[in-house]
Design goal:
By secondary structure, the protein is an alpha+beta fold. The chain contains six helices and nine strands. The strands form three sheets. Strands 2-1-5-3-4 form a five-stranded mixed beta sheet, with helices on both faces. The structure holds FE2/S2 (inorganic) cluster.
Length: about 220
Amino acid sequence: MTDAQPTLTIDGQEAPFTPGETIYQVATRLGKNIPTLCYDERLEPFGGCRLCAVEVEGVRNPVASCTAQASPGMVVHTATERVESLRRTLLEMVASENPTVQVDPLRGYASQELGLLVERYQADTGRFAGAYSGCSKPEDHNPFILRDYELCISCYRCVRVCAEREGDYAISVMNRGFQTRITTEFDGLLEDSACTFCGQCIHTCPTGALADRKALRFALKAEVG
Ligand code: FES
């Protein structure tokens, strides 16, 4: 005899899950469209942006569904007024310090994520306008990767993909809070780091802060004939 598979309830629908799965994984399987920014299914859960927050009955504050594990009998609500309002406010905080939210899709595979979410939530991109925490690296003249950190939202997907998928550890996080920056060892150029220019960081970046210089060059050539 086998033990019955545990279940939880998501938006009124009972769903089986495998122990160890997160709420986000089960909800996505049910077709729920929970917004994310720091999530990449290939990477370890990080829980930085809180956009994936959901309400769990019996828990006072919303929980990040990409890190919270499903448990038997749990009752989850993925789209209450409270979490939708929280998501809009979080998006407005992120977008308010990004000079450009809508970027060229040729910047990278995931580069439209922030822009699409801003559209979906009709987020006011100027609501929290003020100082910018980003810092660009205009002097990094490598031919492959544009580093436009003024568009960085500190989701660390680039740092995590470089470490977890490539094992290169070429980039990391420097400073804290508003001064946080993505950097290389000794804050040098990518060419002088352990970077292999594999492009994984470009293609996981949800804002286009890292971009494919080659694609942008070709696009420009096509435009000017
Ligand atoms: S996607 Fe869950 S915290 Fe960012």
